[in-house]
Structures are given as C-alpha cells and as structure tokens.
Amino acid sequence: MKKVRICILALLFASIAFAEGAAQDKSHYFGGRLAFGFDYVWDNAPVKGTFGSAKDGVGEAALGNFGGMGIAIGASYMYRLNGFVGFVGEAEFSMAWFRLDEDVYGIPPEDPYGDQMNFGLYVYRFAFPVLVRVVPISKFYLEAGAQFNLNVDGDIASIEDDGDESFDFDVEPFGWSLVVGGGFNIGWDCFLGMRFVMDMTRIEKEGIVEMTKGAAYREASPMKLWSLQFSATAYFL
C-alpha cells in the first residue's frame, strides 16, 4: 500500500512538473484586446474652396485642428519564438472622433450674425497590426511594427443639440501606420500596454468634396492621424 501511495505521489509531482514545463514552452497565444486613447491630426492643410453663395474662398480654417478620441476592440494572436522575442498579429475594429474647426461648414463662411455650428469628424476602420515583440526583462515588453488600415466609412456631422446637418467624408480605403509601444504582464497572460500609432497615408481621397450640390464644396485635405492608445489584452487560448 505504501508503494502505491509513493507511485501516486510521484505521478502527481511529475504531472505538475510537466504542466509547468508545457506552460513555459507554450508558443501560441490567442485572445482579445480592448483599447482607447487620444487622437490628433498631424498632417493637415487649410480648407479651400467656395462655400455657399460666397465668392471669396476659405483658406484659413482646417479640418481636425482639435484633438479627438478613439476606441478599438478586436482579436490578438501572439507567437513566442523563444523567451526573448515573439510576433503579434491582430485584427480590430476602431472608431476615431475629432472635433472640427468651428464654422468650417458655415454658409457663407463669414456669418454676419456670428452664428457657428460645431461639427465632428468620424472615421471607422478595420486595423491589422503586425508587430515584433521583445521581452528584455521579465514581465515587461517592447514592440514595433506596421499597422495596415482598411477605412470603411467616414462622416462629418453636427454635434449641436438641435443640429442635423451632415456631410460625406470620402475616406481612402487603404492605408498603413507605424507602431511603437510597450507594456507589462500583470499575470495570467493578461497585459496592459501603450502604443503610439502614426498614420503614414492620407485618410481622405484627393479631389473635390461636394457638400451642397451645385453650391458648396471644398478641396480634400491630406490629413494623417496619430493615436496614443492604452490597452488591455488577455490571452485565454
């Protein structure tokens, strides 16, 4: 009977050791990521064009001169080549919101009554970051790589309580960004991180953007965005 107990204990300790070794040797991780942060336009141009019945063009106001906010949710996959370096691939859906300059869309641009209408710019996209992640010290990581963007929609809408005006925002369908970041492991394959994402391609198509048929238009802005994201990622597979 004593021998049986010894064998059972030996098997128990062996199974624990095997499980710990397997956990350390685990290479593939799959989970989810939630991020929010602050956005801003880093490359922008003054809005030009004739607005409404005004003969004089507008050359001062620019899109996106005010900061905005963003949120993203998606899936994350990590492959650990070894204890020092790994690769991360993600797929997420994100929305960015910016406040536009006041009265950019005023018709005419210089309202004699001084009335102003505030507008918000919304950009919706699917993003696919592909990153290299290194772990220089235990529980802390650094990462860098590229993010490929599929911009699916954009619109400009009034943010006034009683405003219902909106204009199409003709986004470029494809773009890419540079990504650098870091974070730390808080345990149980859960990570808190921070990323700086800088768009390298314009998010609005070139050309004339028509606002009111036959009356108001503007030239497209070569705007590019940067985002400072704070995220939580949990790997459960």
Highlighted features:
10% helix; mainly beta; two-stranded antiparallel ribbon; Porin; 237 residues; single chain
Shape: elongated
Strand order of the largest sheet: 1-2-3-4-5-7-8-11
Overall residue-averaged pLDDT value = 79
| CATH architecture assignment name | Beta Barrel
Oligomer: single chain
**What CATH first level would be assigned?**
Mainly Beta
Total helical elements: 1
CATH topology annotation: Porin
- What is the share of helical residues? under 10%
Overall structural domain count: 1
From N to C, what is the helix and strand string? HEEEEEEEEEEE
Query: Beta fraction of the residues?
Result: over 45%
| Total number of strands | 11
| CA-based gyration radius | 25 Å
Largest sheet: 8 strands, antiparallel, barrel
Please identify the structural class as seen in this structure. Answer: mainly beta
Which stretches are low in confidence, meaning pLDDT under 50 for 5 or more residues running? Answer: 7-23, 106-112
Roughly how many Å apart are the termini? 40 Å
Explain this structure.
- This protein is mainly β and 237 residues long.
- The chain has one domain (28-235): Beta Barrel (Porin), CATH 2.40.160.20.
- It has one helix at 2-24, and strands at residues 28-43, 68-80, 85-99, 119-137, 140-158, 166-168, 174-187, 190-199, 208-212, 216-219, 224-235.
